[in-house]
Specification:
Distance between the termini: 65 Å
Helix content: over 70%
Structural class: mainly alpha
Length: about 280
């Protein structure tokens, strides 16, 4: 296929600014999550951030009150301010920060495909596809918000979303581990790993078509990753270490060689679930 030249300076600017803006949006989401975690640590809730987040307590004490002028203060640290809106903001930021990077192969393939077959840069289609994709994950964030609120009121989660029940942690790990072996997980991963094949069978033209394909692929992505995302209740919904690890695993799973790690991840999660359950019963 022959790439068409982009002669319009504005179109050229839009074409080359797309990726920087995309990654700037992801970075903004991570900054928002970092600010929320730091605010929790400064308010004495560092223990509820989960394993590996002890450094936030030191950092909050080091920066004292200055971090509020440097970071976004979307805080869930004060229980009196913790409501559905704050929880939803946290889940929405988490979804953008963790799942937008996993969509890079899809978006790159879309740009390559449309640049090879159109006279203008596919800027609008890129953003409408991303909007559709993230809209599905925002809907997931709303469901997770309700789920977290329900579990908090049942005393199974702390106010800040960290599991207070070994059996709940074991159940979530077991469900996520077993899901790694299901045909649905495999089908969703196959669609994520082969974006060109996906476009060849689901192509719709124009920005509106790109939005619909984004919605569809977002649903496929949720089908692939929902169980791993819910492990946030085990690692801590504000645990940046867990978020980074989970994002990396989900990115790897969606690459061509990801088929070699999906089942080992499942086996590891099932084994961890068994260990936690056994420890709980012994105690």
């Amino acid at each position: 296929m022959r790439l068409h030249a982009i002669n319009d300076p504005l179109q050229m600017y839009r074409a080359f600014s797309t990726w920087p803006l995309f990654f700037a949006a992801i970075l903004t989401a991570w900054v928002g999550l970092f600010a929320m975690a730091l605010d929790m640590a400064a308010s004495g809730a560092a223990a509820e951030l989960g394993p590996g987040m002890g450094w936030t307590n030191w950092l909050a004490l080091t920066l004292a009150g200055q971090y509020r002028a440097l970071c976004l203060t979307l805080s869930a640290a004060d229980p009196s301010r913790t409501g559905l809106a704050i929880i939803f903001a946290m889940w929405a930021l988490m979804s953008i920060a963790m799942m937008a990077p996993t969509a890079v192969p899809l978006l790159k393939t879309y740009r390559d495909f449309t640049l090879a077959n159109a006279k203008q840069a596919p800027t609008q289609g890129f953003w409408t596809m991303l909007a559709g994709y993230l809209l599905v994950w925002i809907a997931f964030a709303a469901v997770a918000t309700v789920g977290q609120d329900t579990l908090v009121h049942a005393a199974l989660l702390s106010t800040h979303g960290l599991s207070q029940s070994a059996l709940l942690s074991a159940a979530l790990l077991l469900a996520a581990g077993l899901y790694q072996f299901t045909p649905l997980k495999n089908a969703c991963l196959t669609a994520c790993r082969t974006p060109m094949a996906y476009f060849m069978s689901n192509w719709q033209s124009g920005p509106g078509g790109a939005f619909k394909m984004g919605l569809h692929h977002g649903a496929v992505c949720v089908g692939c990753c929902w169980a791993l995302m819910l492990l946030a209740f085990v690692g801590g919904t504000m645990n940046l270490v867990w978020m980074g690890l989970a994002m990396t695993l989900m990115i790897i799973e969606k690459l061509s060689f990801g088929r070699y790690v999906t089942h080992p991840i499942g086996a590891m999660l099932v084994a961890t679930s068994g260990a936690i359950a056994a420890q709980s019963l012994i105690a």
